[in-house]
């Protein structure tokens, strides 16, 4: 079984927020792809980043470790991170790990983008 | 007054009782006789010698000495006939006589028609009751001989569906426990319907059971069954039957076929028919049955079926047909849901008003795991399982990064029949993936030649999955301290180290045990529980 790669794309929707679309598997093997995407998303120093999990196939503890790494970096950069498109299962995992308390988990992109902007202003 | 008279129904059956002591004569003639049509048109008393027809009825009536015919006509239909001999006075029938007789006929005809209808209806009710009773008996016989349970073989999944038509059609299937752990699979169809078919089915069932226990070779079993059935089979009846013998340990399936619909074998390369030639049972003496063999590999499966599926019709009378069934088999990823798929497609094809034309029987057999794993490692792994646990699947994955990903589809297929709620099923999948990842990385040190073994089992209350590595690096680490997100975000803990925490929180119990040459993690998910 070959390791399924993570495909990412970054959308700079406006000056304040960037969206990272994640497609495939988020595991320890996704480190380069995810961190490259994060750098690209942070290029114009947006105040918030929304992670799109709509096309996520699989995420394991290694992938969660990566997300925490990303959160640490975002925290240093004073960026608000939000998420949308999570399945019930991964929403449960975000709750178990309390990641949902740090990342705002939203039902759709519009809410996730609004929250990313708002969170940044409050901060 | 007439010297002799009677109401003569030309339909078969005795004439109504005549008034005593007048003598009666029975005159029978065909409903197709031109006289019938003629009288319906005339619809009034007519002298027999005035009828100019080439008619056996007229000749018979004349021979019986009749003179006047009074047709009983209602709604343009001739429902009876009053035939009278010559007047006793030997004078012609007068105009008054005829008027009187016509009045009588006008009043009598509807009453005769009503009486006929009542009699027809009574006959119909009786015949319907008899048919219902017969169907009931046929169904009872049929059900008596269907297997009460499915064979359970580690690494295999067997499913069956039997759906009788209203007129029970004579389908049957059976599973036989054979020496050496082998399992016999029978599917058959008796021509004809109802009680006769059910009785022949019962005989065939008993003969096959007796012969299969004695002879292992499927071709030989069918040859003997044919020889015995030829002696007893009623005329115009025969039995199509496929008999297969599976060796679950090797996956070897030997089969012979007495004219039954060919089973489909589903493989990654496509679907093939399992062909073997042979005449239906009970037709001719001294028949030989070709015996073929195929090896079922993990992930492959077979669909056995009766003609009730492929010969079902849609409202436009198009047949469901073999190509559609074959396509459904090809589209299946496992046999576990194949029966449902076939029935769903069949229902959509036939439409809601379909009256099932023939019995429908579907039996699926699929191999879910490698026999090598079962054979060599089954007992070791099963040692830790409760005795009532059923093994749903057992397999190995190579110890390479991402290897845990290969576990997920196999686990999903194995637990699919349990119908777990989606959230519970996904929680189990992630926990098993985490345990496998630990086994690959820590237990087997990412050495691809070392397998991680998984056994998926179920009891009535729980799903159990064991994940066993070779423990070459010693037991898997119990993990660092409890992961704490705040500590991780503040850089006081590594961002990683979530595996064991997830496992413990996604399933209800996590147990570990060490044995010689291996370390096993056992995950338990209660089937009615909620993840903590």
UniProtKB/TrEMBL annotation, chain A:
Pfam families: STAS (PF01740). It comes from the Bacteria. GO terms for molecular function: anti-sigma factor antagonist activity. CDD domains: STAS_anti-anti-sigma_factors (cd07043). Residues 16-116 form the STAS domain. This is Anti-anti-sigma factor. It comes from Blastococcus saxobsidens.
Automatic annotation (TrEMBL), chain B:
Keywords: Hydrolase. Residues 1-25, 471-490 are annotated as: Disordered. Gene3D superfamilies: 3.30.450.40, Histidine kinase-like ATPase, C-terminal domain, PPM-type phosphatase domain. Residues 153-367 form the PPM-type phosphatase domain. Pfam families: GAF_2 (PF13185), HATPase_c_2 (PF13581), SpoIIE (PF07228). Coiled coil: none annotated. One of its GO terms (molecular function) is phosphatase activity. This is Serine phosphatase RsbU (Regulator of sigma subunit). The lineage of its organism: Bacteria, Bacillati, Actinomycetota, Actinomycetes, Geodermatophilales.
